[in-house]
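tool_call: predict_structure(chain=1)
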Amino acid sequence: MRGELTLSDISKRFGDAVAVSHFSEHFEAGQYICLLGPSGCGKSTTLRMIAGHESVSHGDITLEGKSITRLRPAQRGTAMMFQSYALFPHLNVLENVAFSLKMKGVDATTRERRARELLELVHMDEFTSRLPDQLSGGQQQRVALARSLITEPSVLLLDEPLSALDPFLRIRMRAELSRLQRELGITFIHVTHSQDEAMALSDRIVLMNNAVIEQAGTPMEVFNKPKTEFVARFMGGHNVIKAEGQAFAIRTDRTRVDRVKPGIQGLVSNVEFLGRSVDISLDCSGTELVASMSDEMFYGNTLSEGETVNVHWLPSDLQPLVPAAHEETPSAGSKQ
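tool_result:
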């Protein structure tokens, strides 16, 4: 099926450093996938191996049932949108978008028509004659998207596409990317270090750490059922509790604070107002916990720094954790 992609036991080494170790995942056609993780975890290297911009040290990549591991980037049926957008400064918007078709020998009428169609799709059809330095960051991103799509790829690869944008524009462009992916129906693979971005956009999250996959699943699965302490802490919104030699995660919004109801004694160390919610930081005999509550709940029963309270939760809200995947695997330094 168009856009169906499988990575089978993929590894990448740079000398003695391991950038990606035994990565195996199957991506269904038409999914929006986010490769998520901290800097240096291997996510961008994985993307570049799919694109053909990095060689594969071990394993195989198949697109629509055909191995693309040894093919040149232009032969793969993928297109990559780089973090820097990499627009040609001396070409106007229309020429930038049409450039790859020009290199393929497509006639001027056809490539201009196709470029205009894609610029209309990304709402940039009014800016065809402008040069890149006459555009805002968000406008440049839209042009780069149109240029990536003009070759009609089966898979679009996006390397940190929103990182250069301000927070307001980043949220707006998230919605645009989601709309485009739904309308085009092709597979998007998007590298990000932002948990919020991955949760908002993806059908499937692949969370990487230290060159390996730590956990993969739907956003709901990864957030609500973290498998390891790393996943719970990286996704945020969780406390990690260790008792009787085992670790558990519990969501901060299901961690309760009470002056009367019995529980673990905790000292309020900080109160942080976040708009719609308030985070209460607690020191429970050396264990740092956070309880999140709505602003309405907090101001109906205000807590103050230095106050002693009781912390409790429902046993059913505890999520057992297992050791992190391949903790001994070395990372690749600055490689991502």
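agent: Confidence is low (pLDDT under 50) at residues 328-336. Proceeding to next step.
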